[in-house]
Amino acid sequence: MSGISEGISWLTDSAHWHGDDGFPHRIAQHLGYTSLTVVIASAIAIPLGLWIGHTGRLRGLAIALTGALRALPTLGLLTLVVIWRGIGLTPPIVALVVLAIPPLLAGAYAGLESVDRATIDAARAIGMNEWQVLGKVEVPLALPLIIGGLRAAVLQVVATATVAAYIGLGGLGRYLIDGLAVRDYPQMVAGSIVIVVLALVLDGIFAVVQRALSIQR
Amino acid sequence: MIEYRSVAKTFPDGTEAVHDFSLVLPSRSTTVLVGSSGCGKTTLLRMVNRMVDPSSGQVLIDDADVASRNPVELRRSIGYVMQHSGLLPHRKVVDNVATPLRLGGVGRRDARSRALAALETVGLDPTLADRYPGQLSGGQQQRVGVARGLVADPNVLLMDEPFGAVDPIVRAELQQELLHLQRDLGKTIVFVTHDIEEAFLLGDQVVILRKGGEIAQVGTPAQILADPADEFVRSFVGLDRGRRTLRIQEVDGKRVVVDADGRAAGVLA
Ligand SMILES: Nc1ncnc2c1ncn2[C@@H]1O[C@H](COP(=O)(O)OP(=O)(O)O)[C@@H](O)[C@H]1O
Ligand SMILES: [Mg+2]
Questions:
Q1: B86–A129: do the CB atoms touch at under 8 Å?
Q2: Could you please report the per-residue DSSP string of A95-127?
């Protein structure tokens, strides 16, 4: 128990709340990695998932890909990309994008598959073209599941973005790496608490958004 | 006028839904395709707006082959009403009705006021306009479906068992209203049902179908009853049962019409 309370006093020490090592800066970095990752992963996975869901093609590939990517260990992948591209922002972002793609892809195509075929058929029958069917019917109706995929991706990336610190980058992982190096356990506990709270806050925001979406009908 | 010229449809999985179908549907009248489930009614109906393209043969509207029309444009020019309404669950009733207008490029406000007018035409309480379809009863949803089919004032209206899923009392009400509407509007209606009573009630021309879209008989309800083509038709329209064979009985000096079982059907005027 004393570990936790020492961690909390480390956390509440005003000395740790400013400067490059301070929590605000580390949280900003962490959120920066997270958003960069999720934006890139979404740009890849959501159009692909929508296309698969809309056309019904390559569904098997999507399932296989999702499974394969999920099986990849993030740290191993990080190491590989470091060997390939050297130290920098690329390796952790690549590793995290790979982590974020499966839930985003699954959310998008499962979301589209969940839409009633009769509704889509009716939309076509009254004269919507394929883009209108996608944009005005399929995506709005799939939105709860698409947002669900986004939610899962963000949470995984927030939790795993600590790996950036392994290769000398910033973010909340620094408290774990730096703390471990000098056996400063309170610092590690404080860092973990912030990561958990950050994840909970983000999850709460998504919960509110999803609720608002489902109340609309 | 809609004309089918030797159309056939075999689906990619090998199902032959329509074998060889030819028919002329006169303008400004209601043609009902009636037959049991799976006989090809929906397939035939959907050939008119190119939701299904025939494997061979042609469908013509006013002598122009629909195959030469852009499917999306064609569908926008034709009203479509289906079973289970086919409404968009995430759009309000009024927006559902306005959808065909919006797709046709009508402005938001104009589309809304025309949609409200269409809801009134089908006898729907205007206070329901801002609800979502899921908040309406089955009968109300079907009315919304009819309003959406009519809102853009199409010449042709396709109706696929539009009243099939509502209870008998509401169905009878909807049928009567469609008759009234059609009296004023004079659309070319293609109506699909498996219910021969509905076919006889609504159809100016009734087409009785066998499996594979084979025509058993075409005619007005009176012609079909007077001169059923064969045993299949006799049985399909119920002439083999007592209810259709009526005779006159004198009761208290009035001539009462009764069926073969002696049940009273009405009085002769
Ligand atoms: N898209 C399709 N693919 C394969 N078979 C179909 C398809 N649509 C309809 N069918 C088949 O074609 C036949 C006629 O169907 P349909 O026109 O829907 O009949 P109805 O509307 O009279 O019930 C049925 O055997 C049905 O199973
Ligand atoms: Mg059908």
A1: no
A2: HHHHHHHHHHHHHHHHHHHTS-HHHHHHHHHTT
